[in-house]
Amino acid sequence: MSMVQAILLKNGRIIDPANKLDKKGSLLVEKGRITAVFTARQKTGPLPKKLFSIDLQGKWVVPGLIDMHVHLREPGEEHKETIESGTLAAAAGGFTAVACMPNTIPVNDCQSVTRLILEKAASASARVYPVGAISKGSHGKILAEFGEMKQAGAVALTDDGKPVTDSQLLRRALEYASNHKMLVISHSEDSGLSRNGAMNEGFISTSMGLNGIPHIAEEIMVYRDLALADYTGCHLHLAHISTRESINLIRQAKKNGVPVSAETAPHYFTLTEEAVKGYNTNAKMNPPLRTPKDRAAIIKAIQDGTIDAIATDHAPHSVLEKDIEFDQAANGIIGLETAVPLTLALFRKGHIDASRLVQLLSSNPARILGVEGGSLGIGAEADIAVIDPELHFVLQEQDILSKGKNSPFIGARLQGKAVLTLCGGRITHNLLSP
Questions:
Q1: Considering 67, 109, 225, 313, which one is annotated as catalytic?
Q2: Phi, psi at residue 413, to the nearest 5°?
Q3: Pick from 146, 158, 214, 347: CA 20 to 30 A from residue 38's CA?
Q4: Active-site annotation holds for 313
């Protein structure tokens, strides 16, 4: 990792929807901040004498990507991931910031754990935004101390992985969080319906002899969550949406003015339940991979704005948790190093344009979380990703920087990759020739 006093990223395609910019040009970074943006027709002004210049030859220059749903596993499960390894993987994926979920050991439900995470992240390869637990221990019984966690540096609240089944508790959480100007993120799942399920309920689960998770397990709780957001008037964010009817409910709620935002993950618009065949535990997650109709609905929602953000739900596991019987294997896959090529596939197929891609992966997550970033404006921190949309590669296990290797895309031919990442002007990832 290195810091250069002045860097000129020249001859790139600058895509910055926050400033309504999509033009060829150059960008100047000095002392960790963006100090000038020159479009192709503009002459560059006076440049610093000591300048590190990089000719990007048309590659995309975008605001650093922000992943609002990541599991860094530290403290407590460092054999799966650490803040160091997770942020190295983030930088390799073009991410300059990640929001880490609270299901650590111990749970991040108090200021001391929040502070520990931030201390560990002080020299990390990406900014780390801790997300605190809604309830103490994420047990869904008593609210955690939101104010203390915010004071320590938490930016949002969730019991991710454990749905808040007590509607009164979630109502109070929304009201309490609103007073502290904190975002509540809901894992929408009726655990009574999903209990003991290992994949999407349907013909494939039956033919494989696996207990299924019905789509209504998500949709019933999405309906409940939307009703609470509407009743309280407090902003609620819905995590990892996976079904067609959930999309319909969110779309209608937005039309009715309900203060809600929603995310999905790349695997839900890329894969279907077919990927589970052969008992592939690297395709096991919660919510599970769904049907082709659900996948099509997710893509439509990304197009029309029903889905606000793409988050990876990066969930590293060791072989101890994955290389076992399917119904006993842990849920989750890694995603930081594959988000760019998988989302670029939507661009290449004409589902979204380049500006929308940057909104989904950068500017919208920044806005929803209420954190800095998502913009290449002059004076902004130099959190920048350079993407080569034409770069072809095969995802190989030995090339993955995350400690977790649990990806259904290992061995797949992918297109598009972050080739340079700057976080606060510091080069945290570089595949470009010197």
A1: 313
A2: -85, 120
A3: 347
A4: yes
